[in-house]
C-alpha cells in the first residue's frame, strides 16, 4: 500500500472485502477494488462528466474545470493521501472518481432546478443520484444492472458526507434509494462512518474544489489576487509567492500559489488525521466505522481559514452577477425540459418512454429526472433548442 508506512490493520484490504451483491469470479490480474475503479472509468456516466460543468457552463472556455477534470484531481489527491497514510489507494481512488457521477448538467444550478421540480416527488440530490447510477441506471453488463461494485465502494459513495442516519448524520433527509437498497439488498450501515479510504476521498474533494475555484475565479475575472490577501493561510501563501517572484505573470503566480496551498491542505489533513488515529487507536476497519467523528479531517485552525475562504468564494464567485445570470438561464432549461417530458412522455427515448408510461407519477417523474440528470450541458441545450424551436441565448 505504501513504501513509507507498515501495514495498517485499520485499512481496507481487498481480500477482506464483503464482496459484491451478485457473486462474480475474481480477476487474475486485478483486485476487487481495482475492478471497481475500472468499471467506474468505463461507465457512460463517467464519460459524460467531460461535458458537465462545475460553475461555468461548457461554452464559456476550454480551461475551466469540468466534472471530469475535477474528479481526476480529487482522485490524484486521494491517492496521495492514501499512500502516505498506508491505506488502500485503489478503494480511495474509485470512490473519488465516482463521487460526482450523479450531478446534473449545469453544476449546482442544474441540481437546484432539478430539486425544485422534483420536490413533490421526493426531491433530488446528486449523492443519491450517484448511488442510483452505480446500482441501477448503468445498463451495460449482461448479468446485472448498475456496476455491481463491492460493498466497500458502495458504502463510500453512500456516506460521502458521513453517516446518513443516526446522531452523527448531517443529512437533511435519508435518500429513499439507499434505504431501499439496505433493506432489500445489502445493509450499508448508514448510521456509521465509512472507511478511512472513503473519508480520504471526501476530504480530497474539499481540497480540490477549494483550490480550483480560486484558479477558475481569477481566470474568469470574478476577483483578483489582491482580493484573496486578507484570507488567512490563502493570503499568506500568495504573499510568499509574490515576495519570492515579484515579476511573475498572473497565470504562473496563481498556479504556484495554488500548488503550495494544495500541499498545505494535504499536510494539515495528514497531521490532524494521524493525531486522531493516535487518540482513537483503532485496531480494525470496524473500529474506524464506530468512531463518533471522522478520522480524516482538517485541523480546527485550518477550518477557520477554510470557512472564510468558502464565504469569500460564495460571495464573490457564486453570487457574481455573471454567474447568477447564467444560473438563472440554465435553471430555466432544466425546468422547461422536465415540464415538457412530464407532459409529453412519448417524446422520451425508447427505454425511458416505455418505463415512464403515459401518466405523471412518482416513478415516472423519477425516470424523467434520471434522463435529464444524465444529460451533458451541450446535449441539454440542444434538446431544449429542438423542443422549443429556439436558440436559448447564453452569454
TrEMBL record:
Residues 17-28 have a biased composition (Basic and acidic residues). PANTHER family: DEOXYGUANOSINETRIPHOSPHATE TRIPHOSPHOHYDROLASE-LIKE PROTEIN, DEOXYNUCLEOSIDE TRIPHOSPHATE TRIPHOSPHOHYDROLASE. It comes from Kiloniella litopenaei. One of its GO terms (biological process) is dGTP catabolic process. Pfam families: HD, HD_assoc. Residues 67-210 form the HD domain. This is Deoxyguanosinetriphosphate triphosphohydrolase-like protein. One of its GO terms (molecular function) is dGTPase activity. The keyword Oxidoreductase does not apply. InterPro entries: dGTPase (IPR006261), dGTPase-like (IPR050135), dNTPase_2 (IPR023023), HD/PDEase_dom (IPR003607), HD_domain (IPR006674), PHydrolase_assoc_dom (IPR026875). Keywords: Hydrolase. The keyword Nucleotidyltransferase does not apply. Belongs to the dGTPase family. Type 2 subfamily. Residues 1-28 are annotated as: Disordered.
Amino acid at each position: 500500500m505504501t513504501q513509507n508506512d507498515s501495514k495498517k490493520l485499520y485499512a481496507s484490504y481487498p481480500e477482506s472485502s464483503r464482496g459484491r451483491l451478485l457473486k462474480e469470479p475474481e480477476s487474475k490480474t486485478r483486485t476487487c477494488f481495482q475492478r471497481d475503479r475500472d468499471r467506474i472509468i468505463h461507465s457512460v456516466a463517467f464519460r459524460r462528466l467531460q461535458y458537465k460543468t462545475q460553475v461555468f457552463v461548457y461554452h464559456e472556455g476550454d480551461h475551466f474545470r469540468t466534472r471530469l477534470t475535477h474528479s481526476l484531481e480529487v482522485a490524484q489527491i486521494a491517492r496521495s493521501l492514501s499512500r502516505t497514510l498506508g491505506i488502500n489507494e485503489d478503494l480511495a481512488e474509485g470512490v473519488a472518481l465516482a463521487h460526482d457521477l450523479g450531478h446534473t448538467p449545469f453544476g449546482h444550478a442544474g441540481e437546484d432546478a432539478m430539486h425544485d421540480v422534483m420536490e413533490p416527488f421526493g426531491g433530488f440530490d446528486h449523492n443519491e443520484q450517484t448511488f442510483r447510477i452505480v446500482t441501477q441506471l448503468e445498463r451495460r453488463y449482461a448479468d446485472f444492472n448498475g456496476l455491481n461494485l463491492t460493498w466497500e465502494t458502495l458504502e463510500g459513495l453512500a456516506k460521502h458526507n458521513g453517516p446518513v442516519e443516526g446522531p452523527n448524520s448531517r443529512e437533511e433527509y435519508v435518500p429513499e434509494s439507499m434505504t431501499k437498497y439496505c433493506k432489500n439488498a445489502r445493509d450499508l450501515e448508514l448510521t456509521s462512518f465509512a472507511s478511512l479510504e472513503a473519508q480520504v476521498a471526501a476530504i480530497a474533494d474539499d481540497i480540490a474544489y477549494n483550490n480550483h475555484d480560486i484558479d477558475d475565479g481569477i481566470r474568469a475575472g470574478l476577483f483578483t489576487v489582491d482580493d484573496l490577501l486578507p484570507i488567512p493561510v490563502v493570503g499568506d501563501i500568495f504573499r510568499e509567492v509574490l515576495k519570492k517572484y515579484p515579476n511573475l505573470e498572473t497565470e504562473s503566480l496563481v498556479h504556484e500559489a495554488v500548488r503550495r496551498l494544495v500541499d498545505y491542505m494535504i499536510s494539515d489533513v495528514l497531521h490532524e488525521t494521524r493525531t486522531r488515529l493516535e487518540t482513537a487507536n483503532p485496531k480494525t476497519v470496524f473500529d474506524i466505522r464506530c468512531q463518533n467523528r471522522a478520522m480524516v479531517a482538517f485541523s480546527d485552525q485550518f477550518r477557520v481559514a477554510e470557512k472564510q475562504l468558502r464565504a469569500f468564494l460564495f460571495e464573490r464567485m457564486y453570487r457574481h452577477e455573471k454567474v447568477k445570470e447564467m444560473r438563472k438561464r440554465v435553471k430555466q432549461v432544466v425546468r422547461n425540459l422536465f415540464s415538457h417530458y412530464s407532459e409529453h412522455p412519448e417524446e422520451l427515448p425508447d427505454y425511458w418512454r416505455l418505463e415512464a408510461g403515459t401518466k405523471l407519477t412518482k416513478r415516472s417523474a423519477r425516470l424523467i429526472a434520471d434522463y435529464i440528470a444524465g444529460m451533458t450541458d451541450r446535449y441539454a441545450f440542444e434538446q431544449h433548442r429542438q423542443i422549443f424551436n429556439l436558440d436559448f441565448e447564453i452569454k
